[in-house]
């Protein structure tokens, strides 16, 4: 949520905009009882599972989980930032937004200026390809297999072998060196002044999702070093937040429901030129959460073209676990030795390349096969090394069923006891993305979605009196589901501040996808009659209180056994007293 826009204004906008009318302006909706439904615009499906609620003013896809209110829909569908979505709907609703503070306006003006300079620079480099004296550069691109139309589409260019060619051109357009310096296109000299960063190199502009130039990559024409030179980080460009070619590939990624990820500029450009257009490049860095979440807007399926000859192959492969954490289906292709996507397509054709993609292995099988080749798998020590690496991937799965099945499969592949693997898995220290802990049966009830808790949250957002009932009987810490606990705590805080909550307005306060989906899915579940809501809520509260007591009894029982076995009489006496007091208080 943008804190510079008061919450009452956001609520005013939402109250004036009909989400059904808004979404119908983009995709056709059909009535389904009290709601509307259609095929989800965010993933491919044959049976409609995208539901829109006119009562709650929210949407939820029961297929991919995409959820939100009117702001969120514009952000996802039209790739808007939050403020852009608010401004668009404010204009539609006739709501006047507060003015941006002067310092914010200055920052906005500087940002726009940097975009303008980058665009001018990209045009400067691109135009040099068409000059008569650039025939050698054009021949170089033809030799690399790049057609004129492709060079134009990707806005490829050439930086002349001069120290100040770009500097002079940009200054002639009325921009000063201080602004130019902020783009990273020039470098300060030790003796004073500046010179162009890129000289005598092919230029590959890097675009953001809106096709704005944010940075540049540059390659030498021969074998001199460094082979590639890239823009430094700037106010517009942060490494690891973008994917090369994504602005051109995003629609094809959505249509095909998967993305192909390669490493270099040419590995992206050549397959794209030959018709494989759902392809992007990682810009030479290990994959990051920002890149993965960028892809997540368009698909939950990725195929990575992996170079097994690359240095640090395991570190690169390990970075793919990010996709697992984010709920992607990840597959890997290893091309024949000596080939990259660029050279493979040029020699064997794009159809053969597509065949390799269609035969991609899932991440588990690929990684296990690679580890077997590296370590062998006959002796105990080798198996231990393989297990250590494989568990790092398995630990990332949030889905308990997938995790259990991969543990079983790993045990079978290495001829090991599944219980031993579970024990090793539970030794892995949890972090913010760690997967679920397992007991010997492979179950984890504390982490599974608790239907009673979710039903109670639904009722809290629909009936103000229910919030008071919950607050009088339960604390947020009494909820097993961490997302539910967070939501309940937030509801309590909002009510304490004198604010009303509804599914549509509450969405603005949520900063994680899981909580957002929980709210929207719950709101679109079967309705409960108004006269029954408080009664059902009290049943949920009593169930949770009973469960809390049961868990407390079990915990005390376990601690009593430990005290008995260790002969700790003092602790045993205290725990027994606590146990009997708990029973007495709840009988």
Low-pLDDT segments: 430-449
Number of strands: 16
Structural class: alpha+beta
Strand line-up in the sheet with most strands? 1-2-3-4-5
CATH class of the largest domain: Alpha Beta
| End-to-end C-alpha gap | 47 Å
Total helical elements: 27
What's the CATH topology name of the largest domain?
DNA primase DNAg catalytic core, N-terminal domain
Overall pLDDT: 86
General form: globular
The radius of gyration computed from the alpha-carbon positions, rounded to a whole number of angstroms, is 29 Å
Task: Supply the number of structural domains.
Answer: 4
Helix content: 40-55%
CATH architecture of the largest domain: Alpha-Beta Complex
The H-level CATH homologous superfamily of the largest domain, spelled out, is: DNA primase, catalytic core, N-terminal domain
Q: Could you give a quick summary of the protein structure above?
A:
With 587 residues, this protein is α+β, with helices and mostly antiparallel strands.
